Amino acid sequence: MKLPTWFKSVLQSRLDDVFARVALDPEFRRIREEKDLAFQRLFSDPTIINKPEFSEWEDISHYKQEIENEYLYWQGMQDGAQLAYVIMALIMDDEQEKEE
């Protein structure tokens, strides 16, 4: 089944909106700043890989990615549920029109 162009456009617009919210969200921004600061500390010393700062940066980096992935997952679930509801409503309306 090929999706209509307008539908692809709506989905792309929704994705753009969600990614923009992730980029601007204060909590995500705070986590990104912590990760960037840890990254700067990490590479200020070439022998850092054997130091606790490397583990700190790694932990913060993984945590940030997990938080963003979880947010995107749940947003996708909500959007998917809304989409399924709308499609089911359209199908039911179409079936009722055929019966009449």
Automatic annotation (TrEMBL):
Protein name, entry field: Phage protein
Source organism: Paenibacillus paeoniae
